[in-house]
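Quick start: what a row looks like.
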Amino acid sequence: MRIRALTMAGAAAAALAAGSTASAGAAAGPLSLASGPSPFAACTTGLDPGAPAGTNYVNAETEPFVAVNPTNTSNLIGAFQQDRWSNGGSRGLTTAVSSDGGGTWTEPAAPHFSKCAGGTAANGGDYDRSSDPWVSIGPDGRAYQVSLSVNAAQTISAILTSTSTDGGLTWSEPATVQRDDSPTHFVFNDKESLTADPHTAGTAYVVWDRSRFPSDSANPNAGHSVAFRGDPMFSKTTDGGHTWSTPTRITPNNNNMFTIGNQIAVLPDGTLVDVFHFGKGSGQDAPNASFTGVARSSNGGATWSKPITISNNPVVQDRDPDNGVPLRTGADIGGGLPDIAVNPTSGTLYVVWEDSRFSGTHDDIALSKSTDGGRTWSTPVKVNQSPPGVFAFTPVVDVLPDGTVAVAYYDIRNNTPAPGLDTDYFAVVSHDGGGTWTESRITPASFDDTTAPIARGYFLGDYQGLTNDGSAFKSFFVQTNSDDTSNRTDVLASTLTP
């Protein structure tokens, strides 16, 4: 096996951790730094005079996402939160661009999704904070970004998009897909994602959940109460992001549905498949219900199927085993935030999420697949290669055109009783459609997760980035700079060659 960018000690540790399967793992290329000093360090917006100030972590990047340009696979565009706040959002979203397949990165001016990033009332970006970055690139090379932009009090929430036709170097002014201003009866837009249609130039889809609270005194920071409703919302553009359709509900006949983590995959025949975590709203299902599911649309999002359950989704809180401090991961919302990928040739779908079913005591990474367009799903299997008793978190999945599947995730197998929480990033690869898996270590050395920003726990992001250029996977993830409180985290990139 060729494992690049690992020290000899790191390579030995990776081989030992992965056991006999390590000999067939993907080759993890050297790490490249995709983030730099904060461009927003001098910006002071984002405070709410009527609420606790929160802590701003200057120079801290979280929650990255990445896409490859199909017209020029050397061109990668990433996006991430910059200067994370402890009580929600960041000063702005930063864009990183690579023209050499992820070897080196630059940071051009980002879209005007917040005041710190140049947003004003005139250009449509007059918001104190931004969150939930996502980027996708269409078959014509047009890149789309999306942001959840909010005021400091988080009583105004908006879904904003921006586009680029020059590989991510410049971006259009924001277009507003949805905006809610609800200082009394709380409505909040959350966890949006954007998918450029891989078959139709100029067409892209945005999905998100629009939480509704039955009480005027509802607290948006109370977590996902059983009394909340979370409508899965949908909007599309057919003119390259200049205009967006009036948002509609994906589940119009289920007023009690609560969803989060909506994300669309497009099948080879054009069918849209929206994956989400869902559970009890008011009177929905059993107490503490937690599921992963999908809805299908064969007419471009005009109508959708009823929710199709992939699986129930038990989780436990991921915690630092040394001190009990929680980690905010992809399982922070009472279930595992799902990630979806589609084989662009066969249409086979893969979904991954955090799940505690395999041990009953900690979270592992579950995977299910569908070979009939999302109508039926396989029994979930554990795919992470973590040693017994070690939890894994925040998975992402992607598929090459030849059917090779990769799943990336964090785990803490190298943690010791010494102060700190030693954490690493790994990837497993399957060449047989998920039947067998082999593992590679992406991080050449462990990093201390306790250095991460605190946002209801150590926070690297509710998701990370994983894409491909047709022959190799491109990983885009956050790790901490251990013990460096002036620059707590950075975004790193690596190429995984099966």
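That is the whole record. The mean pLDDT is 90. The chain has one helix and 31 strands.
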